[in-house]
Amino acid sequence: MDTDKRYSKHKREKTLSHVTFRAFALGLLLVIPNVYFLINNHVYLSGLPTTISLFYNVIFCLFLLVSVNLGLRRVAGRWALTQGELLTVYSMLTVGSAMSGHDMLQTVVPALTHGYWYATPENEWQSLFWRYLPRWLVVQDPSKLAIYYQGESSLYWGNHYTLWLTPIAWWTTFFVALVAVMLAINMFLREAWTVRERLAFPIVRLPYEMTMPKGTFFKSRLMWIGFALSGGIALWNGIHVLYPLIPQIPTRQFEIGQYFTQRPWNAVGWTPIYALPFAIGLAFLMPLDLSFSVWCFYLFWKLQRVLGNALGLRGLPGFPYDAPQTTGAYLMLASLALWGSREHLSRVSRAVFGHGTTPNREYRIALLMGVLGLSWLLIFAQRMGMLWWIVPLYFGIYYIMGISITRIRAQLGPPTHEMFQATPHQILVDALGTRRLGVSTLTSFAMLWGFNRGYRAHPMPHTLEAFRLGEQTNLAPVRLALAMLFAVGVATITAFWAFIEMSYRNGASVNPSWGGFNHLQNWLFYASSPRTVELSFMGVGALITLGLQLVRTRFLWWTLHPAAYALTGSTWTMGWLWFSIFLSWLAKWIIVRHGGIRGYRAALPFFLGLLLGDYLVGGSWIVLRWITGIQTYVFWR
After folding, report:
1. Which of the two residues, 301 and 570, has the higher pLDDT score?
2. What are the domain boundaries of the chain?
3. How far is Cα 465 from Cα 410, in angstroms, rounded to an integer?
4. How many CB atoms sit inside 10 A of residue 311's CB?
C-alpha cells in the first residue's frame, strides 16, 4: 500500500470529535493562575518549570484535575471529562506555560523599560539607541518608571496601568501571530511525523498515561513504588530545608570539576554528578541510542576543552566555538527533517490547491493562519525599524530553529533543549556584521532578544505534541489549534499583567532584562564585519551532523546520534542532567539486554513513578513557598 492510500485509510478510520466548550473554557480559566504562579516564581530564580521539556507545573495541575475527575466518574459520570477533554486542557496549559516561560515573556516584559531605566552616562545608551526604540512598544517616562522599579506601590494606583495598555496590546498581537505560524507549520508536518514516520513523542507519555480511562495508570503497584522513592526523597529533603539538623539525601552535592586543578585538565570546568529522580524517569523514555549519545557527547565537549588547553588553543577568543558548532548542527537537523518530509509536503501542496486531489480543509486553514500570522510579523518587525530584507531572514531562521527543536522532541524526547546563541540575531550578526545591519535593525534585535535567548520554553514543540495527543484521542486538529491560540492570547496578557503587578509591589529592579541591551551596547561600541571564524565553525557543526546522520543510515551498529551533538554543546542546563541521563541509560540498557521489550514495558511504570513523584512532592514544596513566602526545598535548580 503506497503512502497516499495509507493516509486515506487512516483518515477514513478516524471519527474526529470537536474540542468541547467546557474543556476550552476550563483550559482558559486554568491558564490564568498557572501563568501567575510562573511569573511570581520567576522572582526566586529557582524551581524553574519551563527550563525542562515536561513542565512540572502542568503535570501538577493535570494530576489535580484527574483526581477530581476520577471522583466525578464514580458519583456523577456524565459530568466527568473524557480523555480528550483532559488532554485539551493539558495542551492549553502547556502552551500557556511556554508563553510565560523563562525564555519567553519572563525576559520579554523587562525590555519595555530596561533600555531607559538602566541608561547611564557611562554606557551612553541615550545617545546610542534611545531614538531607535519604538515608542509604541516601550514605557519611557522616568518619573513613572521610578515607582515601577522601586516597588511598594500598586499597578492600580494613580492610573499606572494606562502606561502599559498600548505596549501590551501590540506585543500580544505579535505573540499570537508568532504562535499562529508555528501552528500552521505543525499542521502541515503533523501527518508526516505522526502517521508516516510514527515518531514516539516520549515527552507526552506521562500525561497520556495519567488520563487513561478508568485510571489504569494509577493502579500500577510498580508506579507507586517509583513514586514513593522519588517523592520520599523530595519530602525528606524538604524537611531538611526547614530543619537543617535533619541530614539530607545528597542527590546533587557532588561536583568533580573542582578536583582538576592542573593543566590541561583544569579546562574541564564545572562538572556536576547529580542524580535527579525526575530526570532519571524522563530520560528512561528516550531511545537508548540518544541517552547514550547525550552523555558521550557531553564528555566529548569536555574533552575538546582539555585538548584545546593542552594545545594552547584556549587563548583564541570564543574557543571551542561550541555555540557556532551547535548552531550549524541545529540548522542541519532542521534541513534533514524537512528533506525527509519532502514527499509529504508535496502532497500537502496538492491538497491545498486541489491539484489532482480533493482540497483539504485543514491544510487550507493552516495556510490562511500561516499567511496572516507571517504577514503581521513582517509588518510588525519592519515598523520596529528592522530592515525590510532582514525581516524574512530573521523569522526564517527563527522558525527553522523551531522546526529543529520540535523534531528532536517528537523523535527523541530530551529532558531539555537549551540553545544559547543559536539565535537569529547571532547568526545574522556573524554572517553580515553589525556595520551592514545598522543601529535601527540592531535595536530591533535587542527588543526581540527576550524570546530568542535560550529556547528552553519554545512553544512550537508543545503545539505539535498537543496535535499528537489529539491524534491519539481523535480530536479535530483545527479546533485544537484554535483552542491553543486562544490560550496563547490569554497567557500573554496574563503574563504582562502578573509581571507588572508584581513589579509595582516588590520592585522591578530584581527582574532586569538579561542581555538584550547589553548585546546592543557591544554591537554599537565594537562594530564588526562578517565573522568568518564563527561562520566556519557553523559549517563544521553542520558537516559533523550530516556525517553522523549518514553513518547512522549506512551502519546499523552506529549508535551516536547527531541530535545529541547539538543538544550537549553550548548548554548549561544539560550539565545538571547528564549524569542522571547516564544512570537512566545504564538502567534501561541492563533491563533491555536481559528482558527485551517486555522488560522495558514492565519497568516503565516505575520510572514514570519516579518522574511523577518528584514533580508532585517537589512541586508541592515550591507551591508552599509561593503561598507562604518561606524558603523551601527546590527539587530542580
Report:
1. 301
2. 3-628
3. 7
4. 9
